Amino acid sequence: MNHDDDLERLLQRSRRVLDAETALRPEERRRLARARQQPPHRPAPFYGGVAVAAALLVAVLLWPSAPPQPLPLQLAALAADEFELLFDHGEVLEGANDSDFIAWALTEAGR
Amino acid sequence: MPDAALERFLDGVQGRAVQMATFALSDRDAALDVVQDAMLAWLSRYGNRPSQEWAPLFWRVLQNRIRDRWRRRQVQRRLFSWLGLGNDAGAEAVETLADLSGGADPARQLDDERFRAALHSALRELPLRQQQAFLLRHIEGLDTAATAHALGIREGSVKSHLHRAVQHLQQRLEAYR
After folding, report:
1. Which of B59, B64, B80, B144 has a C-alpha 20 to 30 A away from that of B45?
2. Interface predicted TM-score (ipTM)
3. How do residues B72-96 score in pLDDT, each as one tens digit?
4. CA B147: distance to chain centroid?
């Protein structure tokens, strides 16, 4: 059995498992159905800068005796999360040197 | 109130939508909130569009909402972690309402259950973009172009995310080949 067959079997089994889990509980179905009958509302906007500023303020007010990790590291991790979301196009170039990726992309294009 | 066709469409996609949001957020209640918001936003903005446009627009709205909520949770999680306060809800399992046993063979049932747990774990480990791309392309069955549209990124990026996601799943699920 070759690599492609293995992969296809894995994907099929994953689909079967996940397809079997899409049922909602009756109360969840009722909740979503009820929400759809309501007039639309606008969720509270999220302002990243404001959130970070508020986080800093709270952090200063509630400075713990022994923080588990320095704040700059936490902020750097947040910035890394954002970087991944905003600048993910770079991965295409990264993949251009990966022969496995190129072979896979050609297969994918033919599906 | 949405008309019958819109209701049928939303009934058809809501289960998968909640599943995707639960994987991203590890929180069933937050996932239901996100899907609810996405449905309302989709109805108010696109409910009058031709029906063939409904699915791509719905997945686009949903993925944006998931991403927004995911960002908020990252800020919360990092802040609470820094303050030494436990706010990690942990990896809440995606609900399983179906009987996967498919019969009375206990060995098969056990293997299915282990595979399911390993699959859930591997999916939750994926970076958000990879997770979204994999679920849309390989589980929901969108093509690469529709997946790119739903995620608001280029097709090349989708392929790259899919490649990495599949590699990760193959490694993590090696024992089940």
Report:
1. B144
2. 0.82
3. 888 877 777 777 665 554 445 454 4
4. 13
List A residues 14-43 in contact with B (Cβ-Cβ < 8 A): 14-15, 17-25, 28-29, 31-32, 35-38, 40-41, 43
Long-range contacts of A82-89 (CB under 8 A, 24+ apart): A82/A48, A82/B71, A84/B127, A84/B128, A84/B129, A85/B67, A85/B71, A85/B128, A85/B129, A88/B129, A88/B153, A88/B157, A88/B160, A88/B161, A89/B153, A89/B154, A89/B156, A89/B157
Residue B130 half-sphere exposure, CB side, CA atoms within 13 Å?
Answer: 18
Cα–Cα distance, A32 to A25 (Å, whole number): 11
Q: Where in chain B is the domain with CATH 1.10.10.10?
A: 102-177
Q: Hey, what CATH topology would domain B102-177 get?
A: Arc Repressor Mutant, subunit A (1.10.10)
Contact A21/B94, CB-based, under 8 Å?
yes
Distances (CA, A) of A84 to A23, B34, B66, B81: 32, 22, 15, 21
The structure tokens listed for A59 are 């952090």
Q: Are B115 and B176 in contact (CB under 8 A)?
A: yes
Q: Which residues of A79-103 are buried (b: 16+ CB within 10 A; e: fewer)?
A: eebeeeeeebeebbeebeeeeebee
User: CA B76 to CA B87: how far, in whole Å?
Assistant: 8
* Helix intervals (H) in A23-70: 26-37, 48-61
Cβ proximity of B45 and B53 under 8 Å: no
Asked whether the beta carbons of residue B160 and residue A91 sit closer than 8 angstroms, the reply is yes
